[in-house]
Input
Amino acid sequence: MRIFDPHIHMSSRTTDDYEAMYAAGVRALVEPAFWLGQPRTSVGSYTDYFDALIGWERFRAAQFGIRHHCTIALNPKEANDPRCREVLDVLPRYLAKDGVVAVGEVGYDSMTKEEDEVFARQLAMALEHDLPVMVHTPHRDKLEGTKRTLDVVREAGIAPERVIVDHLNEVTVKLVKDSGAWMGFSIYPDTKMDEHRMVEILRQYGLDNMIVNSAADWGRSDPLKTAKTGQAMLDGGFTEADVDKVLWQNPVDFYDQSGRLTLDPLPGFTGEAVTFEGNSVLRGARK
Amino acid sequence: MTVFSLGYGTNGFSNHRLDDALAVIADLGYTGVALTLDHDHLDPFADDLTRQVEHVSSRLSALGLNRVVIETGARYLLDPWRKHSPTLLSDDPALRIDFLARALRIAGDLGADCVSFWSGVSTVDNDVAWTRLRDGVAAVLEHATRLNVRLAMEPEPGHLVQHLSQVLDLREELGEPELFGVTLDVGHCVAVEPVDAAECVRLAGPLLWNVQLDDMVQGVHEHLEFGDGQLDLPATLTALAEIGYTGLAAVELPRHSHAAPDTARRAFTALTAAMPESWLDKAESRIREKPSVVGSLFPAVGREVGRAALRPATDPQGLVHGTVDDRARVRLVRVLADVLDSSALAAELRDLYRYGDDAERRGVLRGLNSLESPAAEVVGTGVQLVQDALRANDIRLVAAAMGAFARFLDDHAWRHGVLKCVFVGVPLAAVAELETRVDDELRRMLADFADERRAAGREVPADALSLLKEGH
Output
């Protein structure tokens, strides 16, 4: 099973996670810029975070045989804090970087006027930098927030196939499918979505434009939920090819629209999904 | 914009007098020539050689053939019975060495880029053959050094040295002689190399001094016209441009002499259609026009030129020799150094580093390493950037920070940089001027480090140990 996790916050994860992910078949991932639990209070802490996403975290992932990409944006939650909004001025520098595969996570948290403005500005930047958009749907008032999200994206003039709308569930999936955007599902231990519900959704809505992620971060979450969803698909009668489509081909197709994916195997690692022990080259050198 | 020159090999005009061959080649639009010394083409054993060389020299400049290399693959020139005998691998290679010495002298007199040569086919035991080759090349290199003319070895299918990697390895074995480089026949790459011609070009990099152009199919050593084989000509020419190759790329069709003018005309048409203006060329021009655009070009380098290590076999992460994108960024930094005054250069490098990702920061550091005599302001900023990189734990940054520019670090910082390399697993080969700058204090630090490792039952890197041994 080869896996592309299109949404995981590795900055909050340990090297054990990287090892386990590689062993489970993860060869590439996207880390969307988001908030850190502790609110930021300045642009400086933001740029340090972005620098880590395009520098240190990329290097860290590479040591475990995993290609790291990221999305860059001011997230909707912090869009409400005037101390953070100035980060919009430095975003263009980061959107030009290698391995930055979308503008995101953008969208709504509490659906304020400030969030509206910041969302619109960042959609304009996506057009300007020819990048896809990765949209976060609100945890509260999700259906209404998703509708408004789709309206704003449409008004901005962004083609729906260049947008992924994430954190969907049974209630919001149809709306997004009808819009033509890609559908993202974050598989969590006990909240947003679980792997068995996910299999049901795949049965009902098909595999096209369906993307599954672990969205693992600093909260209770599981970086192997992608692999577990793959297993649940197989147990539920889907084929290996179906699993490959959902866990690899779909996210690759979506993010490849950026022209900035790098998927060739890292030095010292093969492209095959083999056991971690077979690929201990770097570990030996780094002891 | 300087790019490489297109030329034609005179071994594809063996039925022409040399004067006529040169005229046809020039008339077709080529600006260089790969001159194979042969019976009727500047015979190096001729009595009136000096006069002939003078004549050819004025002929070349009159025809505008400004790029010349000397090729030494003529048949039956040294032995009327055996085609390429003797070679450097023969029982008595003296005649071959003498011939190559003559070729070097002619190259020097004509202002040629280099003399191209090959190893020969081995008919003896492998160890014997390699010993003979090393000895032979060393002997020829003595002549090259005396005359200050470069030697470019060509991997030739079926010969002892038939792969690019073997030439590069031999060069390392010989102690990386300054005057020893690579001739690459791009058709041979198709026939026998594990990677394509473009990748071979990138692997040879700055050591590529002579290029032969022809088509071929995989596994078959037969020189074909472009389009008759499997060579990706545009990609190959693009790779030449991207590595900054400025030498001669000459068509090599030695079995087409019977129809030389038409063949050469078709080849020129195919070449001009496939010639790139590479992304890097354009980037360089744009920066010369408006230096501030480097801010948007620098991040795009990896996407445009690739990211592979330059010597993947021995240096898979590019810690010692860098990567393809490192080299391209070095070129852009050097353009900046060319067009900006020192305070503007210092400011631009600071910004490129500050807002750069891992690869861009590496590019800035390696760019600093390439500056021969940076002004005080650039040194001041550069040292800050190097110190920042040495605080990082990304080993590729640490390695790049210990290159030539680290000469501006004070002894304390430099020693700690070396120790950090050992500590995080950067090979000491990445440290510039290590042998000349190592001192007792660094040896003490390394000895303490080694003790600590041994106490923990862990290995001590071999390069650190050998540095310690040298101190005794």
Observations:
- Chain B has 21 helices and ten strands.
- The radius of gyration of chain B is 24 Å.
- The interface with chain A takes residues 295-296, 299-300, 302-303, 307, 309, 312, 316-317, 355, 357-359, 361, 392-396, 424-425, 458-459 of chain B (CB under 8 Å).
- The longest strand of chain B covers residues 180-185.
